[in-house]
Specification:
The protein contains 4 helices and 19 strands. With about 280 residues, it is of the alpha+beta class.
C-alpha cells in the first residue's frame, strides 16, 4: 500500500459559516455598498463579515476563529484530479518473438488512489481545521500476466520441420514434425490454440485433394491420430499422425504432424489460448 502526501489547496475552502458539511445551503449575502470599519463587505456572507469585524476589533496577536464550509462536490472533484494524475495501471508481461525465441517484457505493478477514503479523510481534516500534510492511501495493483506465470509458448520452424516448446522464455522441449508441402504450405505468423480435441473425427475439408473422401472416426486409421490442437489459422492444427515416416518432411496439407505419443504429451502441456509462432526458418 502506497501513500500520497497531500498539502491542502486553498481552493478547497470557502471561509463562511462555522460548520463543516458537504451540503451546506448557500448563505444570504450582504448587499453591495456595505462596509465595516471602512472595509467593503458587500457580496460576502454574514459569517465572513463577522469574521472581518472580529479581526478589525481584535488586539495584536490575538487569535481569530474562522469557520469553514466545504463546498459540495469540490473535494470529490479535487480527488478525481489527483487520481487522474497519480493513478498508474498495472502492465502485464507482453509476448513477442526475437531471434526465433519468445521474448516477454517485464510486467509492472500499478497503483490506484482510494478515492472514497481520500474524500472522507480530507473532509475530516477540514472539519477539524488541520493544515498539516495529509497522507492518502494508494491501492496496489498487481499485473495478471507475469514472466513467471505466462505459461507455454510454441515456436514452429516450418522449413526445418521443428517444433520448440517454451515455458515462458525458458526452453522446454523440441520435437521433429511434418509441415505443409509447397502446394499447401503451413501458414506463417502468430496464432493461438483455439480448440483441443481428444480422439477427433477427421472431416474432409473443402479442398481439391479431399474430394470424394468420407469422414473418418477415431481409430488407428484416423489421419489426425488421437489428439487435435486447432489453431486460429483456419483449418490448420497440430495433431498426431499414424504416418510416422512423414515426420521431418514437408508433406502435409498445411497442418503440423507429430508422432502420436508426442502429440498426446504436448496436448497435456498446452492450453487453449497458448501462442503458436510459425516462422520460415
Amino acid at each position: 500500500m502506497k501513500l500520497l502526501c497531500l498539502l491542502f489547496a486553498a481552493g478547497l475552502l470557502v471561509t463562511s459559516a462555522p460548520a463543516a458539511a458537504d451540503d451546506a445551503p448557500p448563505a444570504a449575502t450582504i448587499p453591495l455598498g456595505v462596509t465595516i470599519g471602512g472595509v467593503a463587505v458587500g457580496g460576502l456572507t454574514p459569517d465572513v463579515a463577522r469574521a472581518i469585524d472580529r479581526a478589525l476589533s481584535a488586539q495584536p496577536n490575538q487569535p481569530i476563529s474562522l469557520g469553514v464550509t466545504v463546498v459540495s462536490g469540490t473535494i470529490a472533484d479535487f480527488v478525481g484530479k489527483l487520481a487522474r494524475r497519480f493513478d498508474r495501471p498495472a502492465a502485464d508481461a507482453k509476448l513477442s518473438l526475437r531471434n526465433l525465441r519468445p521474448r516477454l517484457s517485464k510486467e509492472r505493478a500499478g497503483h490506484k488512489l482510494d478515492q472514497r477514503r481520500a474524500v472522507h479523510d480530507i473532509n475530516v481534516a477540514l472539519a477539524n481545521m488541520k493544515r498539516e500534510p495529509l497522507r492518502l492511501t494508494m491501492k496496489a495493483l498487481k499485473p495478471k500476466v507475469t514472466r513467471r506465470n505466462f505459461g507455454p509458448v510454441i515456436v514452429i520452424r516450418r522449413n526445418s520441420n521443428q517444433l520448440f516448446l517454451y515455458n515462458g522464455m525458458k526452453s522446454w522441449l523440441y520435437f521433429a514434425v511434418a509441415t505443409g508441402q509447397s502446394q499447401y504450405p503451413t501458414p506463417l505468423g502468430r496464432f493461438t490454440i483455439i480448440v483441443k480435441w481428444r480422439n477427433p473425427w477427421w472431416y474432409p475439408p473443402s479442398s481439391p485433394w479431399a474430394q470424394g473422401q468420407k469422414p473418418i472416426p477415431p481409430g488407428p486409421d484416423n489421419p489426425l491420430g488421437t489428439r487435435w490442437m486447432g489453431l486460429s489459422a483456419p483449418g490448420v492444427g497440430i495433431h498426431g499422425t499414424p504416418s510416422d515416416t512423414s515426420i521431418g518432411y514437408s508433406v502435409s496439407h498445411g497442418c503440423i504432424r507429430m508422432h502420436i505419443p508426442q502429440a498426446e504429451w504436448l496436448f497435456n502441456h498446452v492450453d487453449i489460448g497458448t501462442t503458436v509462432f510459425i516462422v520460415a526458418a
